[in-house]
């Protein structure tokens, strides 16, 4: 049965293709342009088989169905070791698993061995980068150790170092960035099969600080394994297109002002004060390192109630205290479901279609792709995560404190 309510979506991982030895070198001090390629695409599968042959146990650890994330297409060191690092605007530190590594048995990309690299250099605990933002501390050798913890309870620990990073460009060449500050992870806890994090926060320890404090990414249909036009641009040539909304930076992370939410023409009844920046809480963050949007309970309940009203009794609801889920086929049964619009400051609008608003679980269950952030006396944090950024080019101009959102097909953007 169809609910008279268009769009499409699935949930596998995205990643960049591994480096190839035949690529042409390109050197640039200001810009990196690189493609994003779906994990289930033929180019990725051929690369992963190259590094993990069939008789290697790790070849069977590649997941078929995970939350959709983006991975940086790069290699570390000299000689280069290919890596899959989660693209994360909510993290300031880039880190990768290193040999030896405790808790890295399930990692599906090659693990970097600093002992084999001629360009690896550990930073001392007296370095300007070894500060409280990375929980920096001194070991017995006066080397800087870092600790990073994440919302999913995963943790990475190791030493802070500098190393050469090599990226695949949009023209299948390579660009080298020397002396990138990163964490060489020696211990990891959590359910994570990827190689680490590409931190794009605004701190001096971030790669963004070496590339003009500008970057942009364009995300298309992350459910289509053959979509070839997702991409990332770091540096001066990043695409600042569409309308700009003020970008607030707090503790090196990115925030925007969310004014209202509407479905079709109906405004949700929301206290606008709940979205104002109040120190570390009560703000609306932009985060590419996770998928489901986070909203305060009162906002979640208002959104949930309107979705329930629109779907009505035409689809059976699955009882849950935290999620809104239905028995049904997402793209067939929600044809015509209206856009959900996030209205940002300065008239900027972020439109969410059904592939951005809902997650499909198996073929006959789907849920609203929104989670609850508990409110406190100081307010609560809201997060616009990756799923809500589909079909958009998103640009960050950190020095000008502007964020740009343009709804587009990434194929149409020249880069």
The number of helical elements comes to: 4
Share of helical residues: under 10%
Q: Spatial order of the strands in the main sheet?
A: 1-3-14-13-30-31-15
Instruction: Give average pLDDT, whole number.
Output: 82
* Outline type: globular
The major pleated sheet works out as:
7 strands, antiparallel
* The CATH fourth-level homologous superfamily of the largest domain: Acid Proteases
Intertermini distance: 43 Å
Question: Which architecture of the largest domain does the CATH hierarchy give at level 2?
Answer: Beta Barrel
Topology:
Blueprint: E1 14-15, E2 24-26, E3 31-38, H1 42-51, E4 71-76, E5 81-88, E6 95-102, E7 121-122, E8 137-138, E9 144-149, E10 155-168, E11 173-189, E12 196-199, E13 214-219, E14 230-235, E15 243-246, E16 248-250, E17 253-256, E18 258-263, E19 266-267, E20 284-286, E21 293-296, H2 297-311, E22 317-318, E23 325-327, H3 330-333, E24 340-344, E25 349-352, H4 354-357, E26 358-361, E27 365-368, E28 370-373, E29 382-384, E30 392-397, E31 402-407
Parallel strand pairs: 2-11, 5-12, 6-11, 20-29, 21-28
Antiparallel strand pairs: 1-3, 3-14, 4-5, 4-10, 6-12, 7-10, 8-9, 9-10, 10-11, 13-14, 13-30, 15-31, 16-17, 17-20, 18-19, 18-24, 22-23, 23-27, 24-25, 26-27, 30-31
InterPro entries: Pepsin-like_plant, PEPTIDASE_A1, Peptidase_aspartic_dom_sf, Plant_Aspart_Prot_A1, TAXi_C, TAXi_N
Pfam family, one: TAXi_N
Protein name: Peptidase A1 domain-containing protein
Name some characteristics of this structure.
4 helices; 31 strands; seven-stranded antiparallel beta sheet; disordered N terminus; mainly beta; Cathepsin D, subunit A, domain 1; 8% helix; 2 domains; 415 residues; globular
